[in-house]
Amino acid sequence: MPTVGIPKALFYYKHPLMWETFFKELGFEVELSGDTNRKILEEGVKLSESESCLSCKVFNGHISVLLNKKLDYIFIPRYKSLRKGYKSCPKFFALAEIARTIFNNIPPILNPEINFSKERLDKTLYRFGYNLCKSRVKARQVTKIALGKLSSYREELKDQYYQKIKSEKPKIILISHPYNIYDPFINLNIINKLKELGVEVITIDLIPYKEQVFYSGWDFMDEMIAQIREIVTKDIKGAIQFSAFNCGADSILISLVEQEFKKVNIPYMSLIVDEHTGDAGIQTRLEAFVDTLNL
Amino acid sequence: MARKITFPNMGNYQIVFKTLFENLGFEVIPPPKTSKKSVEKGLKHSPEFVCFPFKVCVGNYIQSIEEKGANTIVMLDTQGECRFQYFGRLQQKILDDSGYNISFFTFNAKNALRYLRKLGIFRNSPWRIVRAVWITLWKLKLVELIEDLSWKTRPREQKSGKTGKVMSKYLDILDKTNSLVKLRRLKREIKESFSSIEIDKSRKPLKIGIVGEIYVIAESYVHRDCDVALGNLGAEVHKAVRVSTVIKHFLNPLSKKLFYRQAYPYLKTSVGGHGQDSVAHMLEYAKEGFDGVVHLAPFGCMPEVTVRPILNQISKEKKLPLLSLSLDEQSAEAGIQTRVEAYMDLIKDKKIRN
Lengths: 295, 354
Fold this sequence. Notes:
The complex is a heterodimer of chains A (295) and B (354).
Chain A lengths: L2 E4 L11 H8 L3 E4 L5 H10 L6 H14 L5 E3 L2 E4 L13 H8 L6 E2 L2 E3 L5 H13 L2 H31 L4 E5 L2 H4 L8 H7 L3 E4 L15 H13 L6 E7 L3 H16 L4 E6 L5 H16 L1
Parallel strand pairs in A: 1-2, 1-3, 3-5, 4-6, 7-8, 7-9, 9-10
Chain B lengths: L3 E3 L7 H10 L3 E2 L7 H10 L6 H17 L3 E5 L7 H14 L5 E5 L4 H8 L6 H28 L8 H15 L3 H16 L10 E7 L1 H5 L7 H7 L2 E5 L3 H9 L1 H9 L13 H13 L4 E7 L3 H17 L3 E6 L5 H21 L1
Parallel strand pairs in B: 1-2, 1-3, 3-4, 5-6, 5-7, 7-8
Helix pairs in contact in B: 1-6, 2-3, 6-7, 6-8, 7-8, 11-12, 13-14
């Protein structure tokens, strides 16, 4: 049985659980790189281009961990667009090529292109599955299971959202990319820290939204703005935007998101972390922010 | 209110943009030459982590609004993948928030016709529009001719600084010339005067290619006269990405496709901006036997930072020395100069040893 390695960073969080299920159903053995830790981060920082964003550095660290295991394939898809007529972050386009140049001993890379401007996700999955197993029936079956897993996960998120929105505690919305929100090592466990301070944290990816056109361009940008417009109508005490250092997208996003909250007079704070950010610094800033909310 | 049009600076291409709008019957206010002052103004108003060209553009706008009273800004949006697609919209917002009363036109493929009508370009007779475009293209050609010739003569000149003088003289004349007949005459004149510069024929200059982001390559303040420094150190430079190549690729998609195919062994997809161009051009330079490549990028530029590991790889595989410079408001001329000098020494050393 061939083994495929999936780095648990960046694209993994765009479609959580889907790729694992997909490969398992196809009869592959799946090796995940596991959660980020100090060693992965250090390895990534050492290998990557120094001006790249922290998330990309961590991604390369995850690949280096995977290479220690015995793998037949490594899975690095090319996420070009997650909404029709829109584009993803350009750093997602060339992940496979960069990995190939950085690591000499890398196994063959499985590199399907996910481009919603060209075709729907189920078609991409089907074609990719067919190329791997050469059976139409199986490919169709696998696609269905993988997509089912993804949608049930998203349903769960929705349930979480409706529970959280009912909570009595002051609610804070945490804005970031999914690969920062779900990586407690990158975000220095910000969600737990906020919980300990006695607030209810609503992460932005939980919020259901209607697709609308605001700025066009990057897919995540319009998604975030739509989600923010949705959440500000609810009783929200404050907003924290969290970004990794030198994220090109966030340099634009921060000013646009800030403007959204300014319009409705909700306190807003932006936090930027890099590989050197200490725990205490973040803690102090969070405490100060939460204190101002209670006034 | 009469429109007074301004636009961001882009090196010598400023002459070209100015001509286009002037011949369409607008009053044009070319932005003052980019300087420390304009960068400071831009820094004050821009988001902190946005890339350097954005800040310089904002500085240019504010300078031409405050110092010369411009009231209309024209900007381009290529609808690519990198941050550039938001430049116009964000800059408009910044200027509005800062209380400047201006109209902002961000041209892209979708709104071009509508905006051209709104600007009132179609009030001109069709003949006048054609003439304006024609003159603009001529000037573009001549600007690039002057640049080409200056790169060729600078490393060979006997009296240092002569090329720079001739270049700025002809750029000035070109700026003032506004008739097709005179432009044709000027072309001959430019060629003659560059060939009349005394050159040392025994010198064999090194050939250095400059790849990277188009704005950074073109705007001399941003790259701190890196091309001149290379020329003075005895290198014949060649800039890869230029406005004429962009227009050529726009008009001829087939040549564009063939061009990008060269990059396929290393990079199969566009990464926004001029990322894939950099890879393709570097491979081209390697094939043409250049002695080295200088890669210019703004600090944190999404496409260029993405391709940098690939460029390093090409440099290793093709044995083509690469100097990659990140430029931002902190980079000083002396710093760039020192690094360029060290780089040139290395290449010369390598050439002697082989």
